[in-house]
């Protein structure tokens, strides 16, 4: 496998296939076809086959894939058999929601530190025997707790400053919830989460449904 | 422009162009050609040009389109510049974060009602002159406030029940944060949001970076 040549949209789709396979296996499926996956996700089965073919052959034409084997293969591709430690900066409602989201541990992502500069929050006990720490302890704790991912849940105005601090402290991956475009150096990865994109996509499907039913957009 | 005279296959393709453009812009593109879009979607670039020409000229031959301007134009065509009212069910940390997220209004999505059954939350004042209401008022408020989108921020165990209630009340679009697959009838649209997909996608990029630097995943 030559990971360097894998396009980013393929990576995103592989992550979706992964979730899809997990849920199929939970529902008792042992065999899946590219068409099963494609139908569930609303994409072309030729696209699914193409994405999987980047990494050699998992399945047999006409027979499909062993669901377990495929999940294992996709997981390996995605570097998902290892665990990752992350921290959250900004313990407003969003930071709190993430700190309490159990789904991440199941996927190998462990929250190891929580930061906020609000004096009324510092010291608050949190799940996992964590407490909320002041930002001036970030560098030290990122190092001590081997944290490689930082989640930005602070207001947009301070997001770049926090990202710079995280990266200077050794973090190599950023999940950004702030509604700003952040600049990061080569060798650091970032994922921006913008909820309004999801809302727009939903609104768009709803408009199409109206078109299908012969109403004006 | 009269949306009614646009052939349905064109509308469908415009939908695809819209998604495509959004993702290109997210990835930092500022200029796109009809060929870029065509190649990504596996259709002819002459078709893309023809579809876009229904609505006047967006770009220049040989130069391409400004990605932002084209997205704006396609959005207008698709009726995506209208406003949508939504409600949030489940006022835990996530619901609170969404109720306070200003980015949605900018995109035309207005929160009009907030629901929770926790007695300690009912009646709490919230931004936009809203208060948290008990779920037994949902049907009435969805109707009165012309709410067409419902956000599910409740635990997985009660998510299907809430979705059924929302749809029976007239909602046609669902944004689902609960980590369960929900069943919805024909004519209703849904978008699932699973944060762990984003974490996995990040972890994968980080693993790829290590590969590029010659380390093992």
Structure commentary:
The structure is a homodimer of 217-residue chains. Chain A is of the alpha/beta class. Chain A folds into two domains: 3-77, Arc Repressor Mutant, subunit A; 84-196, Rossmann fold (3-Layer(aba) Sandwich), CATH 3.40.50.720. The first copy, chain A, has nine helices and nine strands. Chain A has helices at residues 8-26, 34-41, 45-53, 67-77, 93-99, 103-106, 138-144, 156-168, 195-212; strands at 31-32, 65-66, 84-89, 109-115, 125-126, 130-133, 149-152, 173-176, 189-192. A seven-stranded mixed beta sheet of chain A has the order 5-6-4-3-7-8-9, with helices on both faces. A two-stranded antiparallel sheet of chain A has the order 1-2. The first copy, chain A, is globular, with a radius of gyration of 20 Å. The N and C termini of chain A lie far apart (46 Å).
* Average of pLDDT of chain A: 85
CATH homologous superfamily grouping of the largest domain in chain A: NAD(P)-binding Rossmann-like Domain
CATH class of the largest domain in chain A: Alpha Beta
Oligomeric nature of the chains: homodimer
**Count of individual beta strands of chain A:** 9
**Can you tell me the overall shape of chain A?**
globular
Question: C-alpha Rg of chain A, in Å?
Answer: 20 Å
Q: For the terminal residues of chain A, how far apart are their CA atoms?
A: 46 Å
What do we call the CATH topology of the largest domain in chain A? Rossmann fold
With strands numbered from the N-terminus, the spatial order across the biggest sheet of chain A is: 5-6-4-3-7-8-9
- H/E element sequence of chain A: HEHHEHEHHEEEHEHEEH
Largest interface: A-B, 68 and 64 residues
Q: Quickly count the domains of chain A.
A: 2
Question: What's the total helix number of chain A?
Answer: 9
């Amino acid at each position: 496998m030559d990971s360097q040549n894998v396009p980013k949209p393929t990576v995103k789709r592989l992550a979706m296939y992964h979730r899809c396979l997990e849920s199929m296996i939970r529902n008792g499926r042992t065999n899946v076809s590219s068409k099963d996956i494609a139908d569930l996700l609303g994409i072309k089965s030729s696209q699914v086959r193409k994405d999987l073919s980047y990494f050699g052959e998992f399945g047999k034409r006409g027979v499909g894939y062993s669901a377990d084997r495929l999940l294992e293969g996709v997981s390996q591709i995605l570097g998902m058999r290892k665990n990752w430690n992350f921290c959250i900066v900004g313990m407003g409602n969003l930071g709190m929601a993430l700190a309490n989201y159990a789904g991440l541990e199941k996927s190998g992502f462990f929250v190891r530190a929580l930061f906020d500069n609000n004096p009324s929050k510092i010291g608050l006990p949190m799940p996992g025997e964590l407490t909320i720490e002041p930002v001036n302890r970030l560098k030290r704790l990122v190092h001590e707790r081997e944290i490689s991912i930082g989640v930005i849940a602070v207001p947009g105005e301070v997001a770049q400053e926090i990202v710079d601090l995280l990266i200077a402290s050794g973090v190599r991956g950023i999940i950004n919830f702030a509604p700003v475009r952040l600049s990061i150096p080569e060798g650091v990865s970032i994922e921006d989460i913008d909820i309004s994109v999801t809302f727009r996509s939903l609104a768009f499907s709803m408009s199409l449904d109206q078109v299908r039913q012969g109403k004006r957009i």
